[in-house]
Amino acid sequence: MKVGLIFGGRSVEHQVSIRSARTVAAALEEAGHEVLPIGIAQDGCWLPPSAAARALRGEADSLEAQGEAIAPTLRVLLDAAADIEVVFPLVHGTWGEDGSLQGLCEMADLAYVGAGVTASAVAMDKLLTKRLLEAAGIPVVAYEVVTRLDLIHDRSETLERVCRFGFPQFIKPAVGGSSVGVSKVEDDSCVETSLALALGLDDAAIVERAMTGRELECSVIGYPNLEASAVGEIRPGREFYDYADKYLEDDAELLVPAQLDPEGEALIRSLAVRSFDAIGGTGMARVDFFLDGDTAWVNEINTLPGFTSISMYPKLWEEAGVSLVDLVGRLVDEGVARHHDRVAIGREIKAFLADLER
């Protein structure tokens, strides 16, 4: 197939996206697919394949801002749509992982890899994710919510409420990825500055009780049925597994597989599938957990996980016996199958309405 590989983007994960794209492009080509690179510059302008290919070849670490209006550059995608059979989106973070890019593909009638619009948007919003998981009876880390309006209307009460939640705690933007804007707060002296950092990136912040258990991750794939990979463990090289630990440094220890008894592994794998299913997910996701003894809490669901050389999503599938080449090939096939099913549903709806008008 001819696969449109979209990467870059406006988010802070721009360079991570490029690194993921290099890995996926090589695997797609090894799987027999033809890759058409489509880049999105740091200011959101769409770049033609010739410019995007430079980044895939390692000749550029970023796609520089073009200084143009974004809308006219969408012609790059529309022109490519006539040739490609499926899109493989690798735009991490906002405007790519949050349902925006998925919605654009839906509007353009393009098959695409990964979760749909709804699941992508929900997973990017940690607050919505927590509420849906709670409704499904899936344990999540205890939390409080602080909005910008809370601080405007009653700053003192809001700060007191956050402090009463206990320490240590984590404060993070409700919407975001790759631990950007996340702070570990040891006492009340840093609460206000940590909230300011988080609320500078989103309208709401989540305050979570710091967990002392092990940090585990499990990959999920599938359409229409979901499957879980092996389970891995993260041992942060820094105080917690932040952006630098994930992408810039090499101090974090990634244990694949995690040392778990059969019951513990089965629990994590089951919760990973249940969690992704609870938000309506198909395609792919990495589900992150805390495990303390026999109790597991879901931390986050990532519907567009990294594919860099140190990323856990492909590593966990490799441990489960699925090579990177086979993994990307399956993701492409399932993206096409999902699109075909959605087109068929659309035809059924039109036929139903036509029958009503007779």
Characterization of this structure:
The protein is α+β, with helices and mostly antiparallel strands and 358 residues long. The protein has 3 domains: 2-112, Rossmann fold, CATH 3.40.50; 123-139 and 212-322, ATP-grasp fold, B domain (D-amino Acid Aminotransferase, Chain A, domain 1); 143-209, Dna Ligase, domain 1 (2-Layer Sandwich). The chain is 42% helix and 22% strand. It is built from 14 helices and 13 strands. The strands form 3 sheets. The protein has a 5-stranded antiparallel beta sheet. Strand 1, helix 1 (14-30) and strand 2 form a beta-alpha-beta unit. The longest helix has 34 residues, at 324-357. The radius of gyration is 21 Å and the shape is globular.
Number of helices: 14
Count the beta strands: 13
Weakly predicted, low-confidence segments: none
The CATH level-2 architecture of the largest domain is identified as 2-Layer Sandwich
The structural domain count equals 3
Which H/E pattern describes the elements?
EHEEHHHEHHHEHHEEHEEEHEHEEHH
By CATH, the topology of the largest domain is D-amino Acid Aminotransferase, Chain A, domain 1
Structural class: alpha+beta
Helix percent reads 40-55%
Question: What fraction of the residues are assigned to beta strands by DSSP?
Answer: 15-25%
CATH superfamily of the largest domain: ATP-grasp fold, B domain
